[in-house]
Amino acid sequence: MGYHATTGKIAPRKPPAMPLTPINAPFPATRLRRLRRMPALRGLAAENTLSVNDLIWPIFVMEGEDDAYPIPSMPGVSRLTLDRAVDAAKEARGLGIPAICIFPYIEPSLKTDDCALAWSPDNLSNRVTAAIKSAVPEVAVMTDVALDPYNASGHDGIVRDGVIVNDESVEALVKMALAQAAAGADILGPSDMMDGRIGAMRGALQAGGFQDVAILSYAAKYASAFYGPFRDAVGASGALTGDKKTYQMNPANSDEALRLVARDLAEGADMVMVKPGLPYLDICRRVKDQFGAPTYAYQVSGEYAMIAGAGANGWIDEEKVMMESLIAFKRAGCDGILTYFAPRAAKLLGA
Ligand code: PBG
């Protein structure tokens, strides 16, 4: 069932699940509350579990030393200097979090139209990657492959006459991917949504001796207002001209997500992502059922801000909502979740 790597074909959808009614004896023989009576029985009957192994922790990094800058729209999250990022990776190791994902804050004066800093071997992101890999090699480092932090226009691709040009952007992204692989990245996360980038990167990685670097494709990435706080965090809010609707997906679409995932797997992605997370759990479920590939969701900055913001106001029990939101991803078929809650969730899971 699912996607066949050898033929490139997609198997037909699963038939609908058998209706549950016939296997239930009528009340009072069947009382579904019996297995909810006590924690032990609820534990035995649990269909899904969340573990630290399911977590990828996104962090924001900035230049400087021994410093952190709190992001106003993401209470509890700060941009970290390189040394503090290494501390975060050590914390991840201590908590058993398998992977950390790096997003750089780039000074506005360093942003250009050609985005050349994106593939500089010693840019901030690559220095942080190398530092983490030398201090904490057990923690997998994931990087973001997209031009937006480096782009004067704030877009993920190169802009020519107001158009985000696809093929030229892919060439730039491939250079960026190679520089990240050379810095020691374990997982590349192309979040740019250009067509053809996965195949181009996979080919270049193979040719460059980086055949074991994994690609977690942001395959079904929607043009979402839930990214607002992230753009504050990486300093892209002010820079962005227009919106990203010519390359990110229309939130109205679902079948298109399956075509994108099929395409990215066929081009050499090892893992695929749906983004944002909670508002798109229907997509996660369809992707997992259809392809059976390692499937991840990104609980994005706006989702984090809603939970952390309401929690800070005392409107919800933040910890409980956090854990409930994370198990929802597992229930929807995800193998893992990128979440800013990763260290807090890991602490609760380890307790
Ligand atoms: C940019 C990128 C974005 C996010 C991850 N990579 C924002 C965007 O597409 O504008 C969003 C993550 C979040 O909101 O937490 N390539």
From TrEMBL:
Active site: K221 (schiff-base intermediate with substrate), K275 (schiff-base intermediate with substrate)
UniProt xrefs under InterPro entries: ALAD (IPR001731), ALAD_AS (IPR030656), Aldolase_TIM (IPR013785)
This enzyme's EC code(s): 4.2.1.24
Lyase in keyword set: yes
Superkingdom of the source species: Bacteria
Involved pathway(s): Porphyrin-containing compound metabolism; protoporphyrin-IX biosynthesis; coproporphyrinogen-III from 5-aminolevulinate: step 1/4
Catalytic activity field: 2 5-aminolevulinate = porphobilinogen + 2 H2O + H(+)
One Gene Ontology biological process: protoporphyrinogen IX biosynthetic process
Cellular component terms per the entry's GO annotation: cytosol
PROSITE patterns given in the database record: D_ALA_DEHYDRATASE (PS00169)
GO molecular function: porphobilinogen synthase activity; zinc ion binding
Name of one Pfam family that matches: ALAD
Keywords: Heme biosynthesis, Lyase, Porphyrin biosynthesis
NCBIfam families, alphabetized: PRK09283.1
Similarity-based family: Belongs to the ALAD family.
Subunit-level organization: Homooctamer.
UniProt-recorded name of the protein: Delta-aminolevulinic acid dehydratase
The organism's taxonomic lineage, starting at the top: Bacteria, Pseudomonadati, Pseudomonadota, Alphaproteobacteria, Rhodobacterales
